[in-house]
Amino acid sequence: MAPGSPSHRRNLSVTDEEPARTGHRRNRSSVDGTKYKDGTWSSKNDKILMGPYDYVHEQPGKDIRRQLIHAFNAWLQVPPASLAIITKVVTMLHTSSLLIDDVEDNSVLRRGIPVAHNIFGTAQTINSANYVYFLALQELQQLKNPAAIDIYVQEMLNLHRGQGMDLFWRDTLTCPTEDEYLEMVGNKTGGLFRLAVKLMQAESTTGKDCVALVNVMGLIFQICDDYLNLSNTVYTENKGFCEDLTEGKFSFPIIHSIRSNPSNHQLINILKQNTKDAEVKRYAVQYMKNTGSFAHTSRVVADLRDQAFALIEKIDATPKINGSGDGQMVRAIVEKIVESTLSDPNAR
To answer: How high is the pLDDT of residue 1?
Structure first.
């Protein structure tokens, strides 16, 4: 009977096989699974995960949220340690949300440099942004204030609700009404502004309620941003020429222009193309001028500015913290936000 034949294998004794099994036991892996404990992490690995975030964070932005926190603190007088945590959290959330926005909008530039996902890849960029969302929550726990966690959860939900509707309208080519758009902005852009001020109020003992004001400021900020995206040369250098048209985004001036003449489908068809053609974009901008959409946007911004000024005066009328004019810095921020929009010749 030949070795290796079926009959030979059937006649092998236990003793014949034992060396093989014994040898296997001698060569068993020495991996110790118990040493991979929860929380094992290194600064080297952390730097890898933070790469996309750090890339954008290191580029200077408008820094409007840090200025906003400083200005509102004239009213709220948050203890320095708490204020530092809140400022850090808001910065982390804002920067990480930019990473996600750029992926979802298929953007090319951010703050004048290539977007993070074109450097690090989409998957790493999304993971980095999500990682920082939770680092921010971890940072917030240092306040030892249960209300802070509730505020964080609620406003992060609002932010994603607003972003979700914005994406839905874009991807289904559904033009929202002006009211629907403003509601979305209140959730999306207003959410991060509101989060900052609500956290400050949770750590404040002055009793000042600034939420109504910050809601109006969120609307002003987004509508001005929409306007400048279609008209401002500095914006073009930082993000690209009329990027909202390439994204197919229903921004405030675009919504007004489409709805001013629903039977004319030119603008909505331009959005559908996601065009990068500069001449087509210039045509779209001229079309919006002809429908009075820039002038309308400017009037809405001026009206919201006046509402913000009235709310500043109302808050200032409550007991003073630093003497008269506690709201002067907030007023200056509002004026700075609206300046380029209200002074633009296209608005006339």
So the answer is: 55
